[in-house]
Design brief:
Structural class: mainly alpha
CATH architecture of the largest domain: Orthogonal Bundle
Low-confidence stretches: none
Order of helices and strands: EHHEEHHH
Number of strands: 3
Mean pLDDT: 88
CATH topology of the largest domain: Multidrug-efflux Transporter Regulator, Chain: A, Domain 2
Number of helices: 5
CATH class of the largest domain: Mainly Alpha
Length: about 140
C-alpha cells in the first residue's frame, strides 16, 4: 500500500516538515507519482520506526544520516552499518550502567529520608498514634 505524505505523517507521528527535512538530509527517501507528489510504502514505515528507535536512544542525527547513507548504498555496507550500531549499543550500555548507579544513589537517599521522617514521627507521636508517614514505593 502507498501513503501520501499527510497519511504517512499521521501513521508515523512525524510532522510533514520533519519528513521533508529527513528526505532533504538523505535519511528518508520517498517515491514520486506522475504528479510529483511524494508517496511512501510499508517498508518506509518500518524504516521510520527504526529511525525513531535510534533517535529515542540518543543516536545523534549525524550518525543516523551516516547510517542512512550506508543503507542507501546497499548490502555492501553491512559491515559499516553493523559497526555503527555496535558503537551505539556500547554507548547505550554505558549510559544504562551510569543510570543504574544514579538510581542506587537515589534509592539510598530516599531510604535515608524515609528513616528520618519515620524517626521524626516517632518522636512527635506516641506509640499508639496512627500518624501517617511518607513511604515511597520503588523497585528493589
Amino acid at each position: 500500500m502507498n501513503y501520501s505524505i499527510s497519511q504517512f505523517a499521521q501513521l508515523t507521528g512525524f510532522t510533514i516538515y520533519t519528513l521533508r527535512y529527513y528526505e532533504k538530509e538523505g535519511i528518508l527517501k520517498s517515491s514520486r507519482q506522475a504528479n510529483n507528489h511524494r508517496y511512501y510504502s510499508e517498508d518506509d514505515i518500518e524504516w521510520v520506526k527504526f529511525i525513531t528507535r535510534l533517535k529515542e536512544t540518543g543516536m545523534p542525527l549525524k550518525k543516523i544520516k551516516e547510517y542512512a547513507a550506508l543503507r542507501n548504498i546497499g548490502t555492501s555496507t553491512s559491515f559499516e552499518r553493523m559497526n555503527l550500531l555496535t558503537e551505539h549499543y556500547a554507548n547505550l550500555e554505558k549510559q544504562i550502567l551510569s543510570l543504574n548507579e544514579h538510581l542506587s544513589n537515589l534509592k539510598l537517599k530516599i531510604q535515608h529520608y524515609q528513616e528520618t521522617i519515620k524517626n521524626e514521627y516517632q518522636l512527635t507521636y506516641t506509640a499508639n498514634s496512627q500518624a501517617p508517614y511518607l513511604m515511597v514505593n520503588y523497585g528493589a
